[in-house]
Design the sequence.
């Protein structure tokens, strides 16, 4: 329907009419700034070995045979390896569709025991918002999950929902996004604000997130940029300062 | 006349602010709408919902309070329940429009980036459950929480009004007690598929009953306090405090300026249960408004304010229209263009359509001859009798 209304689109400045192939991901620094330190990551960097677990639901995965290598956990690993060639980085995704925060927390002890990660990137919120889980309940579960990870001597980065303009009217993300921000602030863990970042990409016309059609290329490019942005957040925490020489920043 | 406390003339300020609240609710309901930056929720704890519910309580008491003193509790209660039924029908009508929009969205949406988000459309696969739950007011889509709240408030209103007319202080105390007990014991109405009502009626009734209490003489009792300078200063200080806290959410890195002990006290600011901070914020806003916009303010007659007043006088219709227009605006943003220009365009067109509809409704009322029967009645008694 976009085609025949092209004239109207032209009238509207800044409309995300056509998604261009981005050569680079523009990531505003303030959106990926870790205001809190990541001491476990810093310690791991000293030992030259960084072990990261990414726990999430459907939006941490991509479908298809090359889905795993194109999804943001693998892109995060690639970005970290590029920036810190002398560091042995391993990113292990634990993603399963339709998982609420509570479902994921049930698996935390196992993950912490088996993998012993230095950092857990915890993506959550979407499924809870879809199911309409009590925000209070959601908050309690977030706090419990963060405590489990911290007790197992690992840092946490919380990651909130995707910006999805087509389903905005259907999923009330608001209260859950606020809860995640508040919990992150109170527990002193960085929040990777995927929601604001992707909204920014949409507003800048970097990605056409309004697209309804099956476009695997778009999904892969978005995940690639998300991986790079999480890497940028980890670097911004200062955990590698004075430990590892950073390769020049290539985006 | 048993109760001279009920004011004879409709307070135009109520219509004005309710009309503005309806516009703001509409703007807030369009997702990712940058025009919504002008709305009050970005500058303090409370938002347009508080204004809407308070004024609805005020006008309900004004209209049905008179009916109860003139025609008796039975007639007044019957009228209140008829109003609740009208709102229920309006809500179901909106639900139908909502179903139509999302069924359309579901039919064409296959972007692999959003496989997870598409799960929200699962409920379309079991309409038998979903539609029944919607009829029971347990399944409420996004943006459709206010009317169910209004329905429950009206159903509970007859006994409250009866008590308000006899022992206003007791009625208000009962309302406050229910609010406190709700916080204490976590009372709410369950929702489908999980959770509870987004607007907890047992908490939000406080604002509605407070509005009704003000209409039935409470406002006059409060007037001396509001003239007192200390109240004005306290209200202004609190509003500035709320403004700064709210700004800290929106300015990047702003949260660093809010000390941790303060955060522990403030958060979470619970909209579902009408957080005391929100209620206080509304009271502060109302106190300053009453002080600086007196009832006899000449500006209220100015043609520039006429559109907002008209919208406020047909609040149910305009509210429903606003919910529908927000769906339509979202549809336009998604299907045609989501750019800033388009956001301004749909916001402006939406408000213009609301104004045009309000003018049309007024014209219908006039043409149907619902003007005062006897010349002794005040000229706007028809409006008062029609809209609560």
Sequence:
């Amino acid at each position: 329907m976009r085609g025949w209304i092209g004239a109207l689109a032209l009238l509207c400045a800044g409309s995300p009419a056509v998604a261009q192939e981005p050569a680079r991901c523009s990531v505003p620094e303030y959106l990926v700034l870790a205001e809190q330190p990541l001491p476990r990551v810093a310690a791991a960097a000293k030992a030259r070995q960084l072990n990261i677990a990414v726990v999430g639901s459907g939006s941490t995965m991509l479908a298809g045979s090359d889905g795993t290598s194109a999804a943001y956990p693998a892109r995060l690993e690639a970005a970290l390896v590029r920036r810190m060639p002398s560091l042995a980085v391993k990113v292990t995704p634990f993603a399963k569709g339709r998982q609420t925060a509570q479902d994921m927390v049930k698996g935390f002890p196992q993950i912490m025991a088996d993998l012993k990660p230095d950092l857990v990137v915890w993506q959550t919120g979407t499924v809870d918002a879809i199911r309409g889980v009590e925000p209070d309940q959601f908050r309690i579960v977030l706090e419990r999950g963060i405590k489990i990870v911290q007790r197992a001597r690992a840092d946490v980065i919380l990651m909130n929902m995707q910006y999805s303009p087509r389903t905005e009217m259907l999923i009330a993300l608001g209260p859950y996004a606020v809860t995640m921000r508040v919990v992150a602030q109170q527990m002193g863990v960085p929040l990777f604000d995927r929601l604001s970042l992707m909204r920014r990409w949409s507003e800048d016309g970097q990605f056409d997130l309004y697209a309804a059609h099956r476009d695997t290329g778009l999904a892969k490019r978005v995940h690639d940029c998300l991986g790079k942005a999480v890497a940028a957040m980890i670097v911004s925490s200062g955990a590698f300062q004075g430990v590892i020489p950073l390769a020049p920043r290539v985006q | 006349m048993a109760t001279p406390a009920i004011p004879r003339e409709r307070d135009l300020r109520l219509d004005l602010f309710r009309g503005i609240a309806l516009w703001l609710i509409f703007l807030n309901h369009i997702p990712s709408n940058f025009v919504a930056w002008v709305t009050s929720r970005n500058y303090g704890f409370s938002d347009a919902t508080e204004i809407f519910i308070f004024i609805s309580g005020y006008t309900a008491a004004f209209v049905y309070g008179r009916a109860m003193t003139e025609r008796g509790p039975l007639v007044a209660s019957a009228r209140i329940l008829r109003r609740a039924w009208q709102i229920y029908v309006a809500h179901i009508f909106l639900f139908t429009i909502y179903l139509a929009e999302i069924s359309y969205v579901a039919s064409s949406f296959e972007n692999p980036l959003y496989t997870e988000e598409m799960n929200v459309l699962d409920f379309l696969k079991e309409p038998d459950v979903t539609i029944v739950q919607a009829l029971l007011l347990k399944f409420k889509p996004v943006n459709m929480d206010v009317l169910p709240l209004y329905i429950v408030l009206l159903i509970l209103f007859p006994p409250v009004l009866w008590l308000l007319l006899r022992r206003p202080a007791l009625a208000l105390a009962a309302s406050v007690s229910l609010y406190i007990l709700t916080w204490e014991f976590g009372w709410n109405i369950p929702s489908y598929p999980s959770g509870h009502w987004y607007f907890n009626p047992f908490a939000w009734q406080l604002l509605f009953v407070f509005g009704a209490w003000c209409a039935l003489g409470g406002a006059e009792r409060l007037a001396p306090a509001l003239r007192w300078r200390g109240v004005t200063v306290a209200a202004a200080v609190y509003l500035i405090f709320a403004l700064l806290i709210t700004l800290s959410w929106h300015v990047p890195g702003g949260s660093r300026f809010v000390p941790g002990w303060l955060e522990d006290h403030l958060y979470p600011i619970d909209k579902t249960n009408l957080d005391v901070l929100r209620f206080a914020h509304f009271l502060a806003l109302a106190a300053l408004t009453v002080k600086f916009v007196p009832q006899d303010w000449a500006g209220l007659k100015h043609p520039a304010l006429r559109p907002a007043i008209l919208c406020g006088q047909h609040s149910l219709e305009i509210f429903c229209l606003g919910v529908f227009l927000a769906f339509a605006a979202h549809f336009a943003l998604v299907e045609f263009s989501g750019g800033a220009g388009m956001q301004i365009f749909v916001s402006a067109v939406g408000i213009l359509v609301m104004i045009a509809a309000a003018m049309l409704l007024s014209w219908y009322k006039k043409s149907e001859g619902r003007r005062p029967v006897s010349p002794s009645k005040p000229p706007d008694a028809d409006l008062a009798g029609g809209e609560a």
